[in-house]
Specification:
- The chain is mainly alpha-helical and 344 residues long.
- Helix 2 packs antiparallel against helix 5 and helix 4 runs antiparallel to helix 5.
- It is globular, with a radius of gyration of 21 Å.
- The mean pLDDT is 86.
- A two-stranded antiparallel sheet has the order 1-2.
- Strand 1 and strand 2 form a beta hairpin.
- It has one domain.
- It contains 14 helices and 2 strands, in the order ααααααββαααααααα.
Length: 344
């Protein structure tokens, strides 16, 4: 391997690592706030990419109907819970306000989908469709189990993953899709060729990481999420709703997943189940950081991207094995550094 090949592999690793960094940050965020190891994170990647592919064909993606169904189902569950608590009249308006965005976005998407909007507008519409699914999913699958053990929440995540993967097959079929590039230009720098899409991926990932840092440091909602991550009970005693924090963290995770899917769909063919492997690599990066450090997760993601890139050169048939095996020494090191304590 000469320097030219090494630099090309490093560029490829950094590009993939930028996507894994976003997913790792989302996983760390969700785990810190809700203690949920969010295995279905990758499904939002596939939903984002394939929803955009459906819009490209001038069709109304099935995810639009799924969004409306989720919004209505959560409203029904909230109404039942309010009726049992004897607060039906008082809760009617808040319940309607929570369900309204999903229904309105879904109906708007039905009207806009056949119009063959520009690619950027379709990408924004895709984000609007997929992002609310995160908070709705939290209400449907996790909210009632918010105080359960991490193991129970992990089992629920596995079930949600299989359910969303099956729905993905129903919604999109077994065929894969690849979307057009957002920027067709290419630039040369010595032996390296930068495509416009590569630059978009790196810049968008960097911008989102900075935006997340500003959100957690400067905004009231971000500080509330940080407080919930540090001490759930203390945050609750200070008036911070753990339910609202959970919904917000899942909504951010869905946004990050959908954006990641949109960014990578021009560079690789995405199938209904492609998100699982992509999300799993983000999970490996998050484990490098102990599911607790955002900078550590970002650095771990770059390392995963580089390991994958160089493995594809030296042993392409075993690159996935090498990437996932790299988690073993990290787990061993963390077990020595942080001995396990039983939950009470």
């Amino acid at each position: 391997m000469d320097g030219a090949i090494a630099s090309i592999l490093m560029l490829d690793g950094v590009t993939n690592g930028a996507i894994y960094a976003l997913l790792a940050l989302a996983l760390v965020l969700v785990f810190a706030v809700t203690r949920v190891i969010f295995i279905p994170q990758g499904e939002f990647v596939a939903f984002g990419a394939l929803t955009l592919a459906g819009l490209q064909l001038g069709r109304t993606p099935m995810t639009v109907h799924f969004l409306i169904a989720m919004a209505l189902l959560t409203a029904v569950l909230d109404l039942v819970a309010a009726a049992r608590a004897g607060r039906l009249v008082a809760e009617l308006r808040p319940i309607a306000l929570r369900a309204l965005p999903g229904v309105v976005i879904g109906l708007a998407a039905m009207a806009l989908a056949p119009m063959q909007l520009p690619l950027v507008a379709q990408a924004l519409l895709t984000l609007a469709i997929v992002t609310p699914m995160g908070g709705l999913l939290y209400r449907l699958a996790y909210q009632s189990l918010a105080d359960a053990s991490v193991l129970v929440l992990l089992i629920v995540s596995v079930g949600v993953h299989f359910a969303l993967t099956g729905l993905g097959l129903v919604f999109f079929g077994a065929e894969g899709s690849r979307n057009p590039s957002f920027w067709e230009a290419s630039y040369a720098a010595g032996p390296l060729m930068f495509s416009g899409q590569t630059l978009i991926i790196v810049m968008a990932s960097a911008a989102l990481i900075v935006a997340l840092w500003l959100f957690f440091e400067r905004s009231l909602y971000g500080k509330a999420l940080r407080a919930t991550a540090v001490n759930r009970l203390g945050a609750r005693l200070m008036g911070i709703s753990s339910t609202s924090a959970g919904r917000l963290s899942f909504t951010l995770a869905a946004f990050i997943g959908a954006l990641s899917g949109i960014l990578i769909s021009p560079t690789t063919t995405i199938f209904y189940d492609s998100g699982f492997l992509i999300g799993l690599k983000g999970f490996v990066a998050a484990v490098f950081a102990g599911l607790s450090s955002y900078p550590g997760a970002a650095l771990g993601a770059l390392l995963v991207g580089l390991i994958e890139s160089f493995s594809s050169f030296w042993a392409s048939a075993f690159k996935e094995v090498i990437v996932f095996t790299s988690i073993l020494p990290v787990l061993l090191w963390r077990s020595w550094r942080d001995p396990h304590h039983e939950e009470h």
